[in-house]
Amino acid sequence: MAASRRLxxxxxxxxxxxxxxxxxAAAEGEDLLLLDxxxxxxxxxxxxxxxxxxxxxxxxxxxxxxxQVEAAMRxxxxxxVAYLNAGIFAGGNMxxxxxxxxxxxxxxxxxxxxxxxxxxxxxxxxxxxxMKSAGTGSIVVxxxxxxxxxxxxxxxxxxxxxxxVIALVRQAALELAGFGVRINAFAPGPVRTNIxxxxxxxxxxxxxxxxxxxxxxxxxxxxxxxxxxxxxAPESSYITGSIMVADGGAGSLTQVPASALPSADIxxxxx
Length: 271
Ligand code: NAD
Prior knowledge:
The chain is an alpha/beta fold. Helix content is about 35%, strand content about 15%. The protein has helices spanning about 15-25, 40-50, 65-75, 105-135, 155-175, 205-210, 225-230, and strands at about 5-10, 30-35, 55-60, 80-85, 135-140, 180-190, 245. The chain has a 7-stranded parallel sheet with strand order 3-2-1-4-5-6-7, sandwiched between helices. The chain starts with 6 loop residues before the first strand and ends in a 25-residue tail after the last strand. Nicotinamide-adenine-dinucleotide binds near residues 15, 85, 87, 142 and 194.
């Protein structure tokens, strides 16, 4: 790897937002360390990246496995940018079956928290230790607007995991500021990716989501790239501990009418 070029880590690189971040970094001539549990998609990405002047290392791993994360990242002596992006969106929401707090499957709760919080923590801890030793680096985390407010269209573990991720970003920013390391998050609203399965979202669900977005559609993964790269850029030297939203205006709307929320048939609420 050329010493003068930036080394950029992307977790969850094989699809969606992570893939868009990897493509953009390679197009700028940055070297890449790409982590994902989906080996075949990682290989497809690696082939697509061969058009660029970028050294690419791919590791098929599960970020919840600490030993695998250590083995992939410990050999690195310097890490300029870490896009900590891998995540899942499972669990059903409170408007559907098995998504209410009393019906939620505890296994689903643990699975989502395991990937989105514990897996994130694994990659955060190893990234920060490399960056603190080097006295430089920028961490950019893919959070979600679902971690910033109640979101009836997302599952309990998803909103809880993303809220925890946001708290960790703010907390770590305090510590890392004294070590030359910045950490920020961007919080997308809905983005058209494979996160709801490779067949996309069920059309009724899709329409419900679309209705919550003033721009009237999901973001494309590429539309998150400028914000993520802004946060990663050395020129953004005064930005740390920030959570930056890209949600097509959804934060300005009430998400779902209260009448659509689940309730017992008691005639009216809190009478
Ligand atoms: P995606 O499913 O297209 O991509 C996620 C990638 O992460 C996949 O390649 C998957 O294999 C990988 N991954 C999942 N679990 C992993 C694990 N345990 N170990 C290693 N890799 C793993 O989804 P996406 O929408 O691009 O999601 C990226 C991030 O964006 C997630 O953190 C998600 O929560 C966040 N996000 C997505 C949306 C959305 O609407 N798509 C909105 C807000 C935030």
